[in-house]
């Protein structure tokens, strides 16, 4: 249903406008590439890729937005970058480019800007007129999950175990808060002890819960396969990261990606296209929001 030429006639500069803005935002702060990639993921896994994640709480339509759900609160970032892209697009071609498409293109451009693979983004998603606080709490994975739980969360969205592992390679960039990996670095045994010690210096056993550590110590602002190299060395930051390589069924897949970046890139790009197609609104469903934070 979606098409890569969707805006060719109605907003020919759309892709250029988004790419330029993403490049600028990542140049200003490299972590923003990670944050924009994650926004698209947290959008797509909750009611599909419909920009529901961008909506603020709405007193008129009477819904609580997804931003305050547990996986998102004090964690998601990049909303101002999306707002700024949207306002440029509204000037260039008012009412044409959806917020959901902006998220999909910004995720692709972020990965490419950080040195990762690129892919063709299918376009034509429309924006939701509602959000789901409760689905945001149930449909996203938690960093405390084990392999079987991670497989289950992704299989509910139609992904294979291998695709789940490839998508997790996103943790090759970006940061996480101490409170989410504290138990791992102090109490777990499947962790390299030097690595645990080095992370502990910025994540005390009590307090400092918001202190940040890179998800990939090896190359935090480059989109490469270093995340998988970490895992085979027991240097996964989150419990859920190390769960992918912990004597289970995905060990060999992780090892393959750790040795072969091209295989990872190909699988990652394909899985991102698939993720971008989750329950999209097309035709006359939904709307093209004027402001990504509010229904029209
Ligand atoms: C496999 C299950 C996953 C779990 C349990 C998980 C969990 C997390 C957690 C806990 C954080 C840190 C949040 C914080 O400290 O506030 C994080 C960050 C991040 N996640 Fe995931 N994630 C998963 C899969 C994914 C996928 C599929 C993607 C993208 C396609 C992704 C992209 C990111 C990125 C880029 C960051 C860094 C964001 C930033 O620095 O702003 N994650 N994730
Ligand atoms: Ca969504």
TrEMBL record:
Binds 2 calcium ions per subunit. Binds 1 heme b (iron(II)-protoporphyrin IX) group per subunit. SUPFAM superfamilies: Heme-dependent peroxidases (SSF48113). The active site is at residue 42. GO terms for cellular component: extracellular region. Disulfide bonds join 11-93, 44-49, 99-292, 178-203. Ca(2+) 1 binds at residues 43, 46, 48, 50, 52, 66. Residues 1-296 form the Plant heme peroxidase family profile domain. Ca(2+) 2 binds at residues 172, 216, 224. The keyword Heme applies. Removal of H(2)O(2), oxidation of toxic reductants, biosynthesis and degradation of lignin, suberization, auxin catabolism, response to environmental stresses such as wounding, pathogen attack and oxidative stress. These functions might be dependent on each isozyme/isoform in each plant tissue. Belongs to the peroxidase family. Classical plant (class III) peroxidase subfamily. This is Peroxidase. GO terms for biological process: hydrogen peroxide catabolic process; response to oxidative stress. Its main location: secreted. Its cofactor is Ca(2+); heme b. Heme b binds at residue 171. Keywords: Calcium, Disulfide bond, Glycoprotein, Heme, Hydrogen peroxide, Iron, Metal-binding, Oxidoreductase, Peroxidase, Secreted, Signal. One of its GO terms (molecular function) is metal ion binding. It catalyses: 2 a phenolic donor + H2O2 = 2 a phenolic radical donor + 2 H2O. The record marks 38 as: Transition state stabilizer. InterPro entries: Haem_peroxidase (IPR002016), Haem_peroxidase_sf (IPR010255), Peroxidase_pln (IPR000823), Peroxidases_AS (IPR019794), Secretory_peroxidase (IPR033905). It is found in: Secreted. Its EC number is 1.11.1.7.
């Amino acid at each position: 249903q979606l098409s890569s030429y969707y805006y060719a006639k109605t907003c020919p500069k759309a892709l250029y406008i988004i790419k330029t803005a993403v490049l600028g935002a990542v140049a200003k702060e490299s972590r923003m590439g990670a944050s924009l990639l994650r926004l698209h993921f947290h959008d797509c896994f909750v009611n599909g890729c419909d920009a529901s994640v961008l909506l603020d709480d709405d007193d008129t339509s009477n819904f609580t937005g997804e931003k305050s759900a547990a996986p998102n609160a004090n964690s998601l970032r990049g909303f101002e970058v999306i707002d700024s892209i949207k306002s440029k697009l509204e000037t260039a071609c008012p009412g044409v480019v959806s917020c959901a498409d902006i998220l999909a293109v910004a995720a692709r451009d972020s990965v490419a800007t950080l040195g990762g693979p690129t892919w063709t983004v299918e376009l034509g998603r429309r924006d939701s007129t509602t959000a789901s606080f409760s689905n945001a709490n149930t449909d996203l994975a938690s960093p405390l999950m084990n392999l079987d739980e991670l497989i289950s969360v992704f299989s509910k969205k139609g992904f294979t175990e291998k695709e789940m592992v490839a998508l997790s390679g996103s943790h090759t960039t970006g940061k996480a808060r101490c409170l989410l990996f504290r138990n791992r670095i102090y109490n777990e045994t499947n962790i390299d002890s030097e690595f645990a010690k080095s992370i502990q210096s910025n994540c005390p056993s009590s307090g400092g819960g918001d202190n940040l550590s890179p998800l990939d110590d090896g190359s935090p602002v480059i989109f490469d396969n270093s995340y998988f190299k970490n895992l085979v060395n027991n240097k996964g930051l989150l419990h859920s990261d190390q769960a992918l390589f912990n004597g289970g069924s995905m060990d060999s897949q992780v090892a393959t990606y750790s040795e072969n970046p091209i295989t990872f890139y190909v699988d990652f790009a394909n899985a991102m296209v698939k993720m971008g197609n989750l329950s999209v609104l097309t035709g006359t469903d939904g709307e093209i929001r004027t402001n990504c934070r509010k229904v029209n």
